[in-house]
Amino acid sequence: MQEERSLWLAVAAAKGDQEARFALADHWERRGDPRGRYLRLCVPKPGESDLERIHRVTLARAWWAEHRAEILGDLAGLGREPRWEWGLPIPPSELYDGYDSATSFEELQLWLRSPTLLFLTQLRFGHNRSFSEEEVRAVISCPYWDRVRVLVLDDVALSVESITELLTSNIPFEEVSWNGGCSVDGMSGTEMYWPTLGEAALAALCASAGKIRSLSLQAQELGDAAVDQLLALPEGMPLRISWGNHFSEEGIRRLGERFAIG
Length: 262
What we know:
By secondary structure, the protein is an alpha/beta fold. The protein folds into 2 domains: 2-77; 91-261, Leucine-rich repeat, LRR (right-handed beta-alpha superhelix) (Alpha-Beta Horseshoe), CATH 3.80.10. The protein has 10 helices and 8 strands. It has helices spanning 2-13, 18-30, 34-42, 50-72, 105-112, 133-140, 160-167, 199-207, 227-231, 249-256, and strands at 83-85, 88-90, 122-130, 150-157, 175-178, 214-217, 239-241, 260-261. The strands form 2 sheets. A 6-stranded parallel β-sheet has the order 3-4-5-6-7-8, covered by helices on one side. The chain has a two-stranded antiparallel sheet with strand order 1-2. Strand 7, helix 10 and strand 8 (260-261) form a beta-alpha-beta unit. Helix 6 packs parallel to helix 7. The longest helix has 23 residues, at 50-72. The chain is elongated, with a radius of gyration of 22 Å. It starts with a helix and ends with a strand.
């Protein structure tokens, strides 16, 4: 398993590298795994002619038709086909309810067992949805978050406990973008678009500040009550406070001495 994981990481590190994919295909073929042959047939060979490409694609489709369930593995249980790139399924860029996203918790659980998640560099919760603590913990426990560096919270409702767990997890976030509509008290519907960030959530951010290198707060309805907490963030932590917040001139002056305010 360690050898296969290393091969996956090599593919994720150089997505357009044919040799890395051929090495993974070799590994699977030696073990009689039908994914090996399919991956090899999906990767274009350098300098191949149009006739060779048509022949390769025809063989790939035939192999897929015969071995679909084995090739997809757990992902065969999805209600739709995943997108593919050079013989490997591409994971959803968002967790729920958007373009190229997992559309149910059951689908998300299938993806969380797929090493293709090594391709992701950004983890996004969004689209006007409330996430349970169970769902957030399932995401955090995924073993394939080696390359995720950006956390985006966008029009989403999370508990303070879930926010804290996300920010203090082993996922190597370096940048957090916290956009309008992010609730931490379970609000739903239109109320989610104009929530307050909340002191508890700000405290969680401050507690994780040694790990997070960049933080953006947008449309959070923050006011002067949050100034002292924001100023408690470490001196070197870049913070961008954008539109949709309500600070007095004095609050803006104090924050502007340390942070970028848009």
